[in-house]
Design brief:
Blueprint lengths: L1 H23 L12 E3 L4 H6 L3 H10 L2 E14 L6 E5 L5 E6 L14 E13 L1 H10 L4 H5 L5 E14 L1
Parallel strand pairs: 4-6
Antiparallel strand pairs: 1-6, 2-3, 2-5, 3-4, 5-6
Amino acid sequence: MKKIILLLTIVFSAATFAQEAEKKSGPPAGNAAIGDVYGSQVSAKAEQTAISPKKLEKKLKSSKKLENVAVKGKVTDVCDKKGCWLTVETDNNEKFFVKMKDYAFFVPTALKGKNIVLEGSAETKIISVDEQKHYAEDAKKSQAEIDAITKPQEEIRFVANGIKVVN
């Protein structure tokens, strides 16, 4: 009986500690200054050859997936919970969604409004209602905005290996 109580105490303590650690974790600190890099180093070639979001959209119309592509754009939103995703504004005032490769790095919320070069892969995907609602909750959208999500949506998804803040 003592072993069971000890085991339950250990399990409960571990679960409580994990929940507290989750609550305390958030986006990394930082000012997202020009030259700051998140994830892998962005190559000089990528900076020079980065395409606009509009060109990315055009390329994805003919090929559903692009590997080793660099895109330059302006960050419009960053996940407030961990900094695990961001959105980049396209030329037609739409946005595309960026995740970090293998969930290996996060970005500070100070990245909002900054110009960046992303290096990674892009594809057009159908996003489920549940996934859209999850990210809307992360972005602290209103309940009315979340409830308005009722059907899957096709959108550009970018998986970043590295992100660099630029002019």
